[in-house]
From TrEMBL:
Transmembrane segments: 12-35, 42-62, 68-88, 100-123, 143-167, 196-217, 229-257, 269-286
Name this polypeptide is given: ABC transporter permease
Species per Swiss-Prot/TrEMBL record: Bradyrhizobium jicamae
Keyword field: Amino-acid transport, Cell membrane, Membrane, Transmembrane, Transmembrane helix, Transport
GO cellular component terms attached to this protein's record: plasma membrane
Membrane topology recorded in Swiss-Prot or TrEMBL: Multi-pass membrane protein
Family in the record: Belongs to the binding-protein-dependent transport system permease family. LivHM subfamily.
Subcellular location: Cell membrane
Listed GO MF terms: transmembrane transporter activity
GO annotation (BP), single: amino acid transport
Superkingdom: Bacteria
Length: 298
């Protein structure tokens, strides 16, 4: 019994931060219709910024709670600014062109950010473990876990619910959904679509960087971090359905459980299991488990 509970908890811990990353990716696609290849780089950027802030706080012998709050605030401010600058200064010049062009542009941003992180932080691993001690160790059904890992589960649930509520129960969310479903009609009704684009892209970048900040105390920051994350997040949004918040949640849980089960039962098949689930979903549901509603053209 404990063995299966271990797999479930490990899977949910994996799914928690993957859900936040995938949520940003699916939101950007839903609004801007862009498959953002650079999304993993924003995750890595958030992780590196968090590591820098945590190291500065630890050097001043401040408590871990200060480092935790400081890294979240700094990452939120910097990531939002980077997202706005990229959307206003680069992406908006390519709107209306072929989708492949935008795909190549985001791939170029990915390559640039990879080199920028190497120039700023170098190629040696960086650690920021201070916040990892914040919640101590917890016992659950006879199993011992680091409290920080378990706290990520409710944090991701709160973020997911907040975004779902914002999209479906607020005026701003209704405007964003209107742009998602029918951009031309939204323009005719006076919606400033370009402003919605900028906010949506900046918020997507913020979510990716926030996931990076939350996982920074758990991992070592080093080159190549963004590549692994973008592969997993793409798998999640393909499984769940591009543009769907609910799909991102279900896809993250499936991928998290698949990774956890593979690690415990067959480590060599970890990536294979994820691709197997993705292939099985695409065979029967090419649009993903939660297809986003589209307007029918007559």
């Amino acid at each position: 019994m404990n063995f299966f509970l271990t797999i479930i908890l490990d899977g949910l811990i994996q799914a928690s931060w993957l859900f936040i990353v995938a949520l940003g990716l699916t939101l950007v696609f839903g609004v801007l219709k862009i498959l953002n290849i650079a999304h993993g780089s924003f995750y890595a950027l958030g992780a590196y910024i968090a590591a820098t802030v945590v190291t500065m706080v630890a050097a001043r012998s401040l408590p871990p709670s200060v480092g935790f709050v400081a890294m979240l605030i700094s990452v939120a401010l910097i990531a939002s600014a980077v997202g706005l600058l990229l959307e206003r200064g680069l992406l908006k010049m390519f709107y209306g062109r072929d989708e492949v062009v935008l795909l190549l542009v985001t791939y170029a941003v990915f390559l640039i950010l990879e080199d920028v992180t190497k120039l700023i932080w170098g190629v040696n691993p960086i650690y920021a473990t201070q916040p990892y001690e914040l919640f101590g160790n917890l016992e659950f059904a006879g199993l011992y876990y680091v409290g920080y890992d378990l706290v990520l589960i409710p944090i991701s649930a709160v973020i997911g619910f907040a975004i779902w509520f914002g999209l479906n129960r607020t005026v701003i969310g209704k405007i964003v959904l209107a742009v998602i479903h029918n951009e031309e009609m939204s323009v005719s009704m006076g919606v400033r679509v370009n402003r919605v684009y900028a906010v949506a892209f900046a918020f997507g970048v913020l979510l990716a960087a926030l996931a990076g900040a939350l996982t920074a105390p758990k991992i070592s920051m080093q080159p190549g971090l963004s590549s692994d994350v973008i592969i997993l997040s793409f798998a999640i949004v393909v499984i769940g359905g591009l543009g769907s918040v609910e799909g991102a949640a279900v896809g993250a849980i499936l991928v998290g459980l698949a990774r956890a089960a593979s690690v415990h039962l067959m480590p060599q098949a970890e990536l294979f299991m994820i691709y197997l689930i993705m292939a099985a979903v695409l065979m029967f549901r090419p649009e993903g488990l939660f297809k986003r509603e589209t307007a029918r053209r007559i």
